[in-house]
């Protein structure tokens, strides 16, 4: 199916779920551009840019992505770009859009105390970080010895943080940059779980479990990784922190 045809079907599904005329107006103004990898890329005309916030609200974006999955049979992240054409999309996703000289955002780099990948025959497992070593990276890329922890108070805020971190992360086009982002993202998810999930010994909360699963699925669609793999990394990370007994997945 063409992107325009898919978007028309998405609109009909979302319209029934979210009875908000502003969202309907914003979706009708959208210009679908393409499906690129795991992204459904769309744009808004310049004169309709004020409607963008209605589409990027987490509830709306989740409803759109759920509809995209229902129609296409796979997970697609909804990406609303600043420009109007496919050329604008190509420019936005180019590595030049995130200059290496810029400081590394908090989410784009794994903190110094985050677990590292250790080698085990036949497996890659999460282990605790060893003592810091001197870095040869340029000053702008160096990690602080004890960076402040930043916890997202809601699943919606966590989603926003993960998406913003991906868009602004340097070197995200390269495998090592993506791996660095995934390790940092896993810690962000774990930190938020500590706040929102039931404490150890408490009954599991199905609503929170579903919200966590949606976060992992959405993250998987962005980094093009199976959500199961991300879940395993999350469990390994929490296991390294002695949290195996907690309610996780």
Please explain how this structure is put together.
- The protein has 249 residues and is mostly helical.
- The chain folds into two domains: 3-93, GMP Synthetase, Chain A, domain 3 (2-Layer Sandwich); 116-240, no CATH class.
- It contains nine helices and five strands.
- The protein has a three-stranded mixed β-sheet with strand order 1-2-3. It has a two-stranded antiparallel sheet with strand order 4-5.
- β4 (116-120) and β5 form a beta hairpin.
- α6 (155-168) runs antiparallel to α7 (175-196).
- It is globular, with a radius of gyration of 19 Å.
- Mean pLDDT is 75; it is low at 96-106 and 108-149.
């Amino acid at each position: 199916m063409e992107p325009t045809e898919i978007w028309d079907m998405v609109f009909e599904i979302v319209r029934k779920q979210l009875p908000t005329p502003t969202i309907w107006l914003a979706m009708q103004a959208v210009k679908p551009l393409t499906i690129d990898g795991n992204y459904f890329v769309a744009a808004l005309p310049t004169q309709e840019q004020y409607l963008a916030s209605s589409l990027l609200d987490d509830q709306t974006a989740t409803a759109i992505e759920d509809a995209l999955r229902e129609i296409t049979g796979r997970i697609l992240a909804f990406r609303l770009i600043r420009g109007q054409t496919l050329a604008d999309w190509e420019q936005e996703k180019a590595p030049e859009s995130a200059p290496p000289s810029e400081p590394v955002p908090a989410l784009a780099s794994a903190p110094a105390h985050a677990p590292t990948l250790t080698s085990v025959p036949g497996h890659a497992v999460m282990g605790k970080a060893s003592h810091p070593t001197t870095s040869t990276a340029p000053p702008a890329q160096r990690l602080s010895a004890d960076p402040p922890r930043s916890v997202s108070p809601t699943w919606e805020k966590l989603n926003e943080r993960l998406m913003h971190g991906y868009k602004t992360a340097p070197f995200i086009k390269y495998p090592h940059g993506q791996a660095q982002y995934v390790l940092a993202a896993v810690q962000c998810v774990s930190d938020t779980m500590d706040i929102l999930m039931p404490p150890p010994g408490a009954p599991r909360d199905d609503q929170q479990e579903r919200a966590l699963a949606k976060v992992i699925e959405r993250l998987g669609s962005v980094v093009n990784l199976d959500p199961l793999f991300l879940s395993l990394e999350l469990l390994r990370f929490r296991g390294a922190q002695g949290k195996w007994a907690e309610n996780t997945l």
